[in-house]
Amino acid sequence: MIDYSPLSVEKAKKYNKAIIGSGRCKVQQRDVPELRFAANRFELATAFGTIYFWQGLERCFVQMAKVLKQGGYFLICNM
Hints:
The chain is an alpha/beta fold. The chain has helices at residues 6-15, 17-21, 57-67, and strands spanning 2-3, 28-29, 42-48, 68-77. The strands form two sheets. The chain has a two-stranded parallel ribbon with strand order 1-2. A two-stranded parallel sheet has the order 3-4. The protein is globular. The mean pLDDT is 93.
């Protein structure tokens, strides 16, 4: 899980402590344009109520497309 908000990251780490400890989950504080993942890495990326805060939306979408595998999905859920 990646979130821009330090508070959200802190809460996510507490909530997911067990699966983080088992190595099944990582929680990081980052901004979308600063993602440090290899190209074609993920099959799915989600954004729940966050794109309102993304700076340079077009640049962010380019970054998301880069990290998704061909045929991957990017789900945006606005509340």
